[in-house]
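A.,

Following up on our hallway conversation. Structure tokens first:
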């Protein structure tokens, strides 16, 4: 019905214009141009981002207290150095056992907070952790590629503090075929059963060819200063089952797999700062199970729960058939920051949309822009609540812009 109404309005408009053109010299170029609008350009952006100082929470009763690596004393340190087909381990901590097989390192940590400093390079290695103790993993100019699975795999359920050492460049890559272990998950090049908290002022680049880029079966937090690049030709770029919190940092994600999501949050997602650029190029992934056909479309950002945007800069784009810039399954609350969502894919199996929200959408601040070349720029199934006080509220068949 919406499509028929829109086309009817367009036809009426053109009919009126053509009629008026018989009486004067009205230029059709301006009229046609409004229906040939091109979107803003969204590309990966590694430029420097000026962020406010990241001040750790010091109140032990604060729910986020344990998310700050600074709030733990790291007196126990083990160094792991990768060198081609071998790995060298320096340091000994009671209750910690480190085993090596070539450049494949397995750590069993029963000792509480331990800091592991990792550097060097290997094209056939990995790092796996066991033990329900939180630990710090400092990436200090390291490159790990594992042809048979995840480069880093935390099988423990407690926090893994990934500290990307200041000024360093670090690389992780998984393999195209995973060698699985019974009753163990390894769902990405960097995988953790527990929380992953990223900090530091270095660069972490993750390449995924077999499965996802970065994934936690708990939640993921990204703090200011860190730079994360993810390129996945298989599954999702950045994914967490229990939620994603972006407090800052620079995150660039590009996925090309069918039905892949640049960012996917199973729990509540909050964007408080930083810059997130997520681009998805995949078409639909169509599977049939017991005669039931399921179609999964690509999305730059996909959230199964509440999405709250308080600040930061989100730039989302999809180019594949039916792709969504932002696909939110529940409510979205937009309080500040900037969001630009663009969908330029084909409309063969599914409709491409800049922003699709299955719940309610409330906006009372910031800058919100959405574009769809072949369908609605904004699709809200629930209630759309635009607070008063906006400076711009422009709507066209392809673009919606709201600015405060």
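Then the amino acids I'd put at each of the 404 positions:
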């Amino acid at each position: 019905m919406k499509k028929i109404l829109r086309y009817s309005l367009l036809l009426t408009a053109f009919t009126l214009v053509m009629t008026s053109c018989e009486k004067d010299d009205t230029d059709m170029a301006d009229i046609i141009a409004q229906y040939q609008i091109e979107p803003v350009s969204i590309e990966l952006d590694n430029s420097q981002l000026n962020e406010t100082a990241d001040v750790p929470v010091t109140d032990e009763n604060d729910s986020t207290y344990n998310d700050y690596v600074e709030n733990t004393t790291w007196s126990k340190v083990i160094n792991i150095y990768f060198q081609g087909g071998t790995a060298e381990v320096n340091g000994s901590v009671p209750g910690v056992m480190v085993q090596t097989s070539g450049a494949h390192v397995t750590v069993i940590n029963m000792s509480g907070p331990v800091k592991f400093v990792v550097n060097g390079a290997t094209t056939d290695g990995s790092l796996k952790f066991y033990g329900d103790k939180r630990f710090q993993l400092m990436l200090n100019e390291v490159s790990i590629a594992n042809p048979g699975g995840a480069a880093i795999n935390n099988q423990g359920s407690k926090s893994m503090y990934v500290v990307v050492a200041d000024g360093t460049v670090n690389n992780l890559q998984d393999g195209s075929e995973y060698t699985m272990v019974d009753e163990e998950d390894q769902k990405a090049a960097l995988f953790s059963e527990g929380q992953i908290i990223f900090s530091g002022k270095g660069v972490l680049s993750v390449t995924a060819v077999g499965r996802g880029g970065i994934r936690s079966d708990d939640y993921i937090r990204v703090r200011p200063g860190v730079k994360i690049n993810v390129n996945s030709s298989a599954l999702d770029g950045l994914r967490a089952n229990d939620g994603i919190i972006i407090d800052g940092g620079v995150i660039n994600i590009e996925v090309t797999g069918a039905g892949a999501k640049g960012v996917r949050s199973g729990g509540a997602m909050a964007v408080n700062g930083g810059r997130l650029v997520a681009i998805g190029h995949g078409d639909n992934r169509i599977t049939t199970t017991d005669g039931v056909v399921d179609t999964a479309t690509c999305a730059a950002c996909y959230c199964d729960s509440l999405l709250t945007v308080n600040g930061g800069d989100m730039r989302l784009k999809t180019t594949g058939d039916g792709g969504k810039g932002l696909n939110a399954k529940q409510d979205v609350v937009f309080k500040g920051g900037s969001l630009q969502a663009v969908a330029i894919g084909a409309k063969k199996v599914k409709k491409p949309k800049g922003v699709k929200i299955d719940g309610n959408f409330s906006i009372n601040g910031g800058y919100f822009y959405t574009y769809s070349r072949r369908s609605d720029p904004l699709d809200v199934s629930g209630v759309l609540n635009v607070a008063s006080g906006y400076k711009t509220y422009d709507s066209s068949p392809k673009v919606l812009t709201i600015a405060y």
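Residues 314 and 339 are 5 Å apart (CA to CA). Curious whether your intuition agrees with the design.

B.
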